[in-house]
Design a protein that fits this description.
This protein is α+β, with helices and mostly antiparallel strands. It contains five helices and three strands. The relative contact order is 0.26.
Length: 89
C-alpha cells in the first residue's frame, strides 16, 4: 500500500504541472486504468482522501501523487478505481 501524504503535498502547482495520463501512457478511462494498474502502482508515491484536500477537494475520490521524471504531480481517482488499482479493501 502506498503511504498517506500530508494535505499540503497536494497543491495547485503539482496538480497543474504534470499531465499524469500522457506521461504514464494510460487513458483516463476505468478499463485502461485497471489494465495498466502496474504502471500506476510503479509511479505512485502517496495518496490522500479527496475531501481532505485544500486544493480541488472532491468527495468520494482519492488524490494520488505520482513521481515521473523527477516531477511530482497528482490527480483524482474515484474511490472504486483507487481500491481496485491499489488492492485496497
Amino acid at each position: 500500500m502506498i503511504p498517506k501524504l500530508p494535505r499540503d503535498s497536494f497543491h495547485w502547482l503539482r496538480w497543474i504541472n504534470n499531465d499524469i495520463w500522457i506521461k504514464l501512457g494510460v487513458a483516463c478511462r476505468y478499463q485502461d486504468m485497471l489494465e495498466q494498474a502496474g504502471v500506476l502502482q510503479k509511479y505512485a508515491v502517496g495518496y490522500l482522501e479527496g475531501e481532505k484536500l485544500f486544493c480541488r477537494p472532491k468527495i468520494n475520490e482519492v488524490a494520488v501523487m505520482f513521481l515521473i521524471d523527477d516531477l511530482f504531480g497528482w490527480t483524482h481517482l474515484r474511490n472504486r478505481e483507487f481500491e481496485e488499482i491499489f488492492n485496497v479493501r
